[in-house]
Write a structure and sequence with these properties.
The structure holds two protein chains of two kinds. By secondary structure, chain A is mainly alpha-helical. Chain A has two domains: 49 residues, no CATH class; 105 residues, Alpha-Beta Plaits, CATH 3.30.70. Helices cover 61% and strands 11% of the residues of chain A. Chain A has a three-stranded antiparallel β-sheet with strand order 1-3-2. Chain B is mostly helical. Chain B is built from four helices and no strands. Chain B starts with a helix and ends in a 32-residue tail after the last helix. The chains are: A mainly alpha, B mainly alpha. At the A-B interface, helix 2, helix 4, strand 1, helix 5 and strand 2 of A face helix 1, helix 3 and helix 4 of B. Chain A: Keywords: Cell membrane, Membrane, Transmembrane, Transmembrane helix. Chain A: Pfam families: MNHE.
Amino acid sequence: MKLLRRIFPHPHLTILLTLVWLLLANKPSLNSLLFGLLLGIVIPFITQPYWPDRPKLRNWPMVVEYILVVLWDIVLANIAVARIILFKRDEDREPNWVSIPLELRTPEAITVLAGTITMTPGTVSCDLSAQGHNLLVHCLDAPDPDAVRDQIKSRYERRLKEIFE
Amino acid sequence: MHSLFELLIAFFLIVSGIFGFVGSYGMLKLKDPMSRLHAPTKATTLGVGGVLLASIFHSILIERHLSLHELLITLFLFLTAPITALFIAKWHINRHETPADLPDAGEDGLWATHAVPQDEEKPDQTTN
């Protein structure tokens, strides 16, 4: 077991790298599988010093749920933003800054949250507070900033908290 | 059956075309720089996503072979686009916003872009 741990210090990264290599090759063959696996073993081994306290993913079903929720929200938000751009007069739009107090403390979790907020059209995460306890988000059209904050906290942050912490 | 597949592929291409267009139009129509930043996040999600789905369906349904490396484009876009947006936003905050313009940063007092030692040499404000 210990030997296995030493060869595969980061099994998820090994699987991910192998998958990415297979997708890059775009043709399932033993050749690319072996080379992908080789990369998947060598790269985690070399980069080991760079992730000393990596977080453990605790809740795999929640990861799947999170991805589906985000994809669905991206589709909905795209339509909402398209309507704002096409049909709303620029003077009626209310762009707003929103400050989101974070309960997440893991840097990786905050990164995922900030990335999710940016990729959902209509909101862009712009800055962290000095010690990383608040996230600054810019909204394209938010007459009610508190509602945006509550939605981000309940839809994304709650799920990320279950995944990472 | 073949024409049904083509209809499906055409649907995804049209969807991506529409959203790509709206994203670019937004860049023109929105007046303030922070709002303009929202346009590229639109184009990279449904705009690119539609083309990639159409490409995957085309290779599976019409050319009859599995091709999934389009998924990698989505993966890399989702990794890089938020970082670019964050850089542009931080530049904007650094140049054009004061702590008073932004909402309360909670217990930390200042946003990270403003929380640099004040005796640092100020960047040249005339070149923009």
